[in-house]
Request: fold
Amino acid sequence: MKIPSLIHGILAAACVMGAALPQPAPAQVSADDFNALKKMVEQLGDKVQKLEQTHEQDQKAHEQDQQVIEQLQKQLGETKTAITNAQQTADSVAKVQSAYPVVNASQGPMHNFTIVGDAEADFGKSAGQHSAFALADFAPIFLFRASDNVLVEAGFDTILNNNVDQNGNRAPGSSTSFSMSFGQLDYLLNDYVTVVAGDMLLPLGTYSERGAGWLNKIPDDPLVRGVLPGSGVGVQLRGAVPVGESGQMVTYSVYGVNGPSSGFSNSVANASALDLGGNVGDTPNWHADPSGGGRIGWFYPWAPHHDLELGVSGQTGSWSDNGSHIWSAGVVDAALHLGPNFELKGEYIQTRYGSDDLGQLDPHGWWAQAGYKLAGLNLDLPYINNIELVSRFDCENDGQGTKTDRYTAGYVYYFSNTLYFKGDYEWLHSRGPGALPENSFVFQLSYGF
Amino acid sequence: MKRSHPLKLRLRTWLRLAALAAAIVAVSGLLAACADPQATNTTAADAKKETKDTKAKQMAKRLTGAELYAINCNRCHAERYPTEFTPPQWKTVLTHMRVRANLPATQAREILKYLQEESGS
Reply:
């Protein structure tokens, strides 16, 4: 019981000490002090009020600053977006520029140089001849685009032949012929006129311009094409005017060329002297006046792969070196497509020229060719679908007593859109002094590039 | 019958051809000016190009480059795949074909655009 006693003792001592300590004196504030304090409090109140006003102003300024900052942030975002878009655009432009590079000196002259053309190999047999590989032809076309308006182009034929003597008899060895089928400069004057100068394929009909080995569905040319020159040296204006909005157009070609010449003598113009491809130079120039010619055509498509083309063309001019005889030609051509699988086309050709020995001669003839792709039968046979059946009838009257009719039937097998294997059998009925060998067949492998 | 001197014959023939050529150029110039009114007011290449582009867009609404390609190219040869040539090569080839096949310039541009876009380069 010692602890409770100690607590009671401490409490008693505390009471004694509390009673002994002096009591605090009551505060005594004078009126002056009170007023001073009151004034001080009022001043402090004023200061607080001013501070509050300042604070409110600062808050308003802060809010305005916040708004400005937000606007600036928004503008910054827009700027970043614009920069991103600009970078994407720049990247796209860079890609486009890399795809369509601008010609400059550092890129060299080969930039716009392109080679197209075709190559053929034949295997065939004519009456009285052994069957043999008959032709190896490499026919490149060199294209150089000097500018947007200028194109230089030239086509060549490189052909391997057996050697024959002057009479057509066998001679040892072989030879390679390299000839220029055309070489011209094209200047695109405007949307409607192209100026062509040089050795040009002549637009007498359409065959010479569209008859390359790769384009031709029958390996050899229609016989009657032999009464026309294939090319001529001169100047040509050509172009097309669209009609309406369906792809219809009117095409034209107008040209002046040196024209045919007499191949042997300056004074004698016998019929056999006619050299259709002859006059190609100025030194010497074989005769005085040039030939003029042209073609006008109408092309009417009513749907893709459905179209009709009609054309009329002609050429006339002196052919004899002494200028005493005129050579003229007229050609009517037509082509019809009824769908992607059917084609019909042909030409009627009439020529006329005077001669010293045989008087006036009228070589003429016509040809018609039809093709049908078996894909049009919708058979589920891929190999059959790659075949196009073709047939042609052509006839020629050389004006000197020889007449030839020829019927051709064959096929084109499409390995691809550029590699063809063609085969044809030809029945000839030829009579006259220059009668041709009878039936023949030919196979041809043709590649366009 | 008295024959003209060969030089006169040649001169006469060439004069006729030259007159015909001049007439064609003049008519084509008028056609071009009618089809392209800005051409008479400005010589700026950009302005002409812009006008041509606008025309090409209008043409595209009528016949697409693919349709024009099918119409014009397939009548002479099997269609070539756009991927067979690069865009610059297509430009050269189309310039060649515009001349060879007498393609209207507007259609040639549409076909070129189609082939370049589809060339994959």
About this structure: The radius of gyration of chain A is 49 Å. The first strand of chain A starts at residue 113 and ends at 126.
